[in-house]
Amino acid sequence: MSLREWLSAFQRGDLSRAELRQRLQSLGEGGGAADTSLSEGQQGLWMLQSAQPRSYAYNIPICLGLSGPLDPQALQAACIETLRAHPALAAAVVERDGRPQRRGVAAETLPFALHDARTLSEADLHETMSARLREPFALDRGPFMRADLYARGQDSWTLLIVVHHIAFDGGSVDAFMHTLCAAYERAAGGAAQADLATTATTATTAAGFADFVRWERDYVASAAGEAALDYWLRTLDGAQPALGDGDRAPRRPRTVRHA
Q: Which of 14, 28, 98, 183 could disulfide-link to 2, CB 3.0 to 4.6 Å?
């Protein structure tokens, strides 16, 4: 059986949690190419998204209010360059032999749209962005990021970037924004070539994550990992879910003003 079939069997009640866990652990046997492997957390998020493909519970919004002259084409180029610099975002998750693996996608496939929002009220704009936020990601196609730029008036813009939690968390914000702002400065200034420092950082980041995945796999298989698993199984035994799924109302995008 494939992982999706096991997941369906678990949802029907044909598999217990313990049985599902045993099958998931068996997927790790035999290893696989380290550069395409997912971390334990990514595997969990992929399973949750696969079980509820219309869910938007793990969509993360970044909403920026921008004022002053802006070049939309340069901003689109900067978003594409940001994907190149952070390959975790320029990726998809595909299933091979029943196992999820990461596959890189071209940064140019980034969904980027420019919208004329000059006639929209503030409430209508928020509703429009909330609807965009509620659109789920197709993790098997990628990338794990999309961007929408709303023209509000003369030198007034709102940028909504949505990323999936499988490749982004709160600790990612500073690095992401630094990359995006630097890339926009280069694109708006007509830079002819990418920053070599960004290219070096990209290679280091990709190699570092592959090292982390190998370390994590070894830890999970170790005695310490088994002890940690036993502890959490005992601690969470009988616990009831505290949160709903993606059917709950999304968070209202919060706008951060930048001149």
A: 98
pLDDT of 205 reads 54
The answer to whether the CB of 70 falls within 8 A of the CB of 155 is: yes
Sheet strands (E) in 18-72? 59-67
Cα-based angle 11, 14, 15 (whole degrees, multiple of 5): 80
- The two tokens of residue 195 are 């920053």
Angle at 160 between CA 45 and CA 51, to 5 degrees: 20
Amino acid 157 reads W
| The pLDDT of residue 125 is above 90 | yes
In whole angstroms, what is the distance from residue 48 CA to residue 38 CA? 14
Is the pLDDT score of 41 beyond 70? yes
Asked if pLDDT for residue 165 goes beyond 60, the answer is: yes
pTM: 0.73
| Ramachandran sector of residue 236 (left: φ over 0; alpha: ψ -120 to 50; beta: rest) | alpha
C-alpha 155/C-alpha 258 separation (Å) is 12
